Amino acid sequence: MKSLIVYCSTHGTTAKAAHVLRKQIEGDVIAINLDKTKLHSDLELFDSVIVGGSIHAGSIQAKIKKFIKENEEVLKRKNLGLFLCCMREGKEALQQFEHVFPPGIRESAIARGMFGGEFIFSKMNFFEKVIAKSVSGGTTDLSNLDEEAIREFADTFNKNSKYLPV
């Protein structure tokens, strides 16, 4: 099984999650940060695609939105996984997930995950610090990256994945 994890990571948290996930997905897995690397491979080369990003100012990164829009039909034919890193929890996190991933894509996913998030103030600009302070109530680094949620996502993804005709 060949899998591709495509993500954007503004401050490194989504990259951490993607690399923890990469080690837990069965088969050959490549992880690409669209913020640093342009995808040069044809998605048809992969049995599975996992797409992830994080919430900034209420939305997912523009490159993830563009990737989904440009590849929506191909993604729907793949073993598809979707994950989101965000500091919200419970119902609010679910609302953010539903807001950033289009309904057709969400419905096609065999695994969905919300992996928590981090506020790393030293990596934020002024505007981001103001927002993070209003959300967290503080100005010190905060991590609630949920490795158990990543493990559960990987288990679900591995269990539900199947080889697909190319």
Describe this structure in words.
This protein starts with a strand and ends in a 6-residue tail after the last helix. A 5-stranded parallel sheet has the order 2-1-3-4-5, sandwiched between helices. It has a two-stranded antiparallel sheet with strand order 6-7. The model has no long low-confidence stretch (mean pLDDT 88). The chain has 6 helices and 7 strands, in the order E-H-E-E-H-E-H-H-E-E-H-E-H. Helix content is 41%, strand content 22%. Helix 1 links the parallel strand 1 and strand 2 (28-33). It has one domain (2-117, 146-160): Rossmann fold. The protein is globular and about 45 Å long. The protein has 166 residues and is of the alpha/beta class. It comes from Mesobacillus subterraneus. Pfam families: Flavodoxin_5. Residues 4-140 form the Flavodoxin domain. One of its GO terms (molecular function) is menaquinone-dependent protoporphyrinogen oxidase activity. InterPro entries: Flavodoxin_dom, Flavoprotein-like_sf, Protoporphyrinogen_IX_DH.
